[in-house]
Specification:
Chain lengths: 148, 709
């Protein structure tokens, strides 16, 4: 499970009805809604650019990346993650707590996952409220940019 | 002071500061090979450069010290205190000479024979003495007072003859990591944005008490930003300073006469780019001097002035810096290149024959390709044009080469300006804002709706009549796949220049002009290719910067498909891989003409065609343009306009009437059937159809005769 640091903490966020977790070490900050500048011709899954205090951040539309249908009138939040030297914002519906993940509660990703899920999801945590899908940030970002 | 000397002194001062410590450290740890290597390198660098600057005294001392160090390095000598002392003495003398150089720009006088003797005792009995030029004259001129007998050896702390005053090499410049400069750049950029917001707010309030301090803040911010920018910018000339010397040396060695002309040395670009440019540029200039320029005799025989010229030219173009190296030497023979390329298996014979000369010339950038018949010691050290290209491409640049055999060669390097602040034009298209680098914008033209509807269309390409030019046009919104929105009224045509080509981009409106900080786009967006970067406007909005050249390439709007009138095009016969203009004559027949010979395409109403002596003419820009028919099958139909291809050479212009303009194709022409009638070169298969190729020179001749009579 390379997706989680030894401390085993993940930042949780919700997209659609699904809760996800990304390694707390990959996350720089969580910010509220920011205006996203659309980038014409950009691959699907790229929402555009946002201006994070003068720094250009590529915003990733997690709905589109993971093929999750969007509820209308939902306000968005940004989980700013660092990958290499670059910052990316994961545009999500809601950000939850930082959750500790112990090895006992962590299961490998089900082999039956397909597509982007199979590539990005590295494990599943059983929580009281449901399942938390652990996402590898780098893999999510490098998801092949296929046009639908 | 000479730039070369200045660089040398700055570099040496740094080296020497470390050298003292290293030598002392070596005494403590004589087996430390890496330490020894670093000392050797430092001395070696000094020796190497002073040969260049012709500093014989410094050269002799450093050379001898280097020889001793070499023996140490090879283990022939042990790093004993005596040796170390002597090396330290040499270091001190080197410092003294450098200090003298810094003060007077000339090597201070002095006698080092004692030091040399001291050093040479470590070289072993059979080592060559005075391996490099300490001439007998230098020894004879030794001043008596400095010729201390060997038994009164000065200690390192002693003798004024050997030891200089403690050299004040307190550096006037320091090294700062580029990362820190980048951070400063970003901060300054952010400050500018905050300033812009403040300015906007304070301008909304009249008599705001904040107005004066905000003005002050604004001014200081601008200055700060300028200064921070400057820390990263260097004139491109600093990469050139060593070139005159190199060219002179090559000229002397090869008996050539070469003049080096440097233009635009003040053109500034990012420091890293200047550095990245230095080696490739040196290599290109060396190539030009060594392989390009011929000897005076050969030049005279070829009818050229005996003095060869190499021109360096740097300038800004479309948000890029262009550096050109042009020589008027023998150029590169495309046929020869083709032969070598086939010989080395870089390309099949068939493919090579099908390639245009331009494409063939690009083989010089392939690894392992050298056209130099003999590898001289000046060039040809295994660093070829392929390395030039990869070095340039590593910093996001591009390099291209043009050459006419016998007439010289031009290498064009295009470098990006990613870190620069550029002035830009902010435009809107379908509700979105975009920035154009101001440097690539030639002019703006307001278009009314009916002008918009009246573009000429050639094949699928819309063309705009810009005075004497036909300029291909794209709509920004279409090119970027923006969802269409219905809006009428005026639109604006932005005429852009990218490289040699011109084209128009239709936008909805021009919003503003602004100085913007170009920020690189993230890796996921870079793949799109038509953005030069992005920027943040005063209101915090992120706006993409359009790279007009890339946009044009994306939409296929290259203007080498359109000929110009200003440069009277010569009228060549169809050559391999020309762009060809296809036109219909009569019902089904198609003819072609090399596009390069076409001056303009006109639609001429039949009513305006007059007849003079049986010859149809049309009043065209104040003179009479004779019209000829491409084929008897072409007729002027009254009440309709007629397609006319206008040709122009020198003072002769004429039009050829055709039935319709069909297409422009890039194709290799193989004439398969010889001509059966005058005015036609022959028949070839073009775009899958039998096509007659027009003999322009035939019509040109007819037009000339007509104009004489």
């Amino acid at each position: 499970m390379t997706a989680i640091a030894p401390a085993g903490e993940v930042v949780t966020f919700r997209v659609g009805d699904q809760w996800f977790g990304v390694d707390v070490m990959d996350v720089q900050e969580v910010i509220g809604h920011l205006r996203i500048a659309r980038v014409p011709l950009a691959a699907p899954g790229i929402a555009g650019f946002l201006n994070l205090r003068g720094q250009i951040v590529t915003a990733i539309d997690v709905h589109q990346r993971l093929e999750i249908s969007r509820h209308a009138s939902e306000s968005s939040m940004n989980v700013v993650v660092r990958d290499g030297d670059e910052l990316f914002a994961l545009v999500v519906d809601e950000v939850g707590d930082v959750a500790a993940v112990s090895p006992e509660t962590l299961d490998p990703a089900p082999a039956s996952l397909r597509g982007a899920w199979a590539r990005a999801c590295t494990g599943v945590v059983r929580m009281d409220q449901g399942l938390l899908a652990i996402i590898d940030v780098t893999r999510l970002l490098n998801e092949p940019n296929t046009r639908p | 002071m000479d730039d070369l000397l200045k660089d040398f002194l700055a570099e040496s001062a740094e080296n020497l500061a470390q050298l003292d410590q290293d030598v002392v450290e070596l005494e403590r740890d004589p087996s430390n090979a890496s330490l020894l290597n670093s000392i050797f390198r430092a001395i070696h660098t000094i020796k190497g450069t002073c040969g260049f600057l012709s500093l014989p005294r410094l050269e002799t001392v450093s050379h001898t010290a280097e020889s001793v160090l070499d023996r140490l390095r090879k283990g022939a000598l042990k790093a004993e205190p005596d040796v170390i002392s002597d090396i330290l003495r040499a270091v001190d003398v080197i410092k003294a000479i450098l200090a003298g150089l810094a003060a007077n720009q000339t090597e201070p006088a002095g006698d080092d024979s004692l030091l040399i003797t001291l050093l040479e005792q470590w070289l072993g009995p059979d080592a060559p003495r005075h391996a490099i030029g300490i001439g007998p004259a230098a020894i004879a001129n030794a001043t008596p007072e400095s010729a201390t007998p060997p038994d009164a050896l000065p200690t390192t702390e002693g003798s004024p003859a050997l030891i200089a005053e403690p050299v004040a090499t307190a550096p006037s410049s320091i090294r700062v990591s580029v990362k820190l400069l980048d951070a400063l750049m970003n901060l300054a950029g952010e400050l500018v944005l905050s300033r812009n917001q403040l300015l906007e707010m304070s301008s909304r309030q009249e008599d705001s008490p904040f107005a004066p301090p905000v003005q002050q803040l604004s001014r200081i911010t601008a200055e700060l930003q300028g200064a921070v920018m400057k820390t990263r910018m260097q004139p491109v000339g600093s990469a050139w300073s060593k070139l005159p010397r190199i060219v002179r040396d090559i000229a002397r060695e090869t008996g050539k006469k070469i003049e080096l002309d440097m233009k635009g040395a003040a053109t500034e670009l990012d420091r890293q780019l200047v550095q990245a440019l230095q080696d490739p540029l040196t290599h290109m200039v060396r190539n030009s001097a060594d392989h390009g320029i011929e000897s005076p005799d050969v030049r005279r025989a070829a009818g050229k002035p005996p003095v060869g010229r190499i021109v360096l030219n740097a300038y800004h173009e479309a948000g890029h810096v262009i550096v050109e190296v042009t020589d008027d030497g023998k150029g590169i023979n495309a046929a020869e290149m083709r032969r070598i390329a086939i010989e080395r298996g870089l390309v099949s014979k068939e493919a090579a024959q099908a390639m245009s000369d331009c494409q063939v010339l690009r083989f010089v950038f392939e690894p392992g390709f050298s056209t130099a018949a003999s590898v001289t010691h000046i060039s040809g050290r295994g660093v070829g044009m392929d390395v030039v290209r990869s070095n340039i491409e590593r910093v996001g640049g591009a390099v291209d080469l043009q050459s006419v055999g016998g007439q010289g060669c031009t290498i064009r390097v295009r470098l990006p300006l990613t870190l620069a602040i550029v002035s830009s034009l902010i435009v809107s298209a379908r509700g979105e804002m975009f920035a154009f680098p101001q440097a690539s914008v030639l002019e703006l033209i307001r278009l009314s709706d009916d002008q918009l509807a009246r573009f000429d269309v050639l094949h699928d390409v819309r063309l705009f009549r810009l005075r004497d030019d036909l300029v291909p046009v794209v709509t920004l919104g279409d090119a970027l796949d923006l969802p269409a929105d219905e809006r009428g009224g005026v639109t604006t045509l932005v005429i852009c220049q990218a490289g040699a080509s011109r084209f128009g981009i239709i936008v909805d409106d021009v919003v503003d002009t602004q100085e913007i900080v170009v920020k690189p786009v993230g890796r996921l967006i870079r793949a799109v290719g038509c953005y030069a970067g992005c920027t943040i406007l005063g209101d915090g909005r992120v706006v993409m910067i359009i790279d007009p050249a890339a946009l044009a390439a994306r939409t296929g709007t290259q203007t080498n498909t359109v000929a110009k009138v200003e440069t009277p095009a010569p009228v060549p016969a169809a050559k391999p891989s020309d762009s060809l203009l296809l036109f219909g004559v009569g019902e089904n027949a198609v003819q072609a003409v090399p596009l390069s010979s076409v001056a303009r395409l006109e639609e001429i109403p039949s009513d305006s065609i007059e007849y003079a002596g049986g010859q149809p003419v049309v009043q065209y820009r104040g003179f009479l343009l004779p019209l000829m028919l491409a084929s008897p099958a072409v007729t002027f139909t009254s009440g309709r306009s007629n397609s006319v291809i206008v040709f122009n050479e020198g003072t002769t212009s004429f039009g050829i009437a055709v039935s319709e303009i069909r297409d422009i194709v890039d194709e290799i022409v193989n004439l398969e059937l010889a001509s059966t009638r005058p005015g036609v070169l022959g028949t070839a298969v073009i775009a899958g159809a039998a096509t007659e190729v027009l003999d322009v020179s035939y019509y040109m001749e007819r037009a000339r005769r007509g104009s004489v009579s």
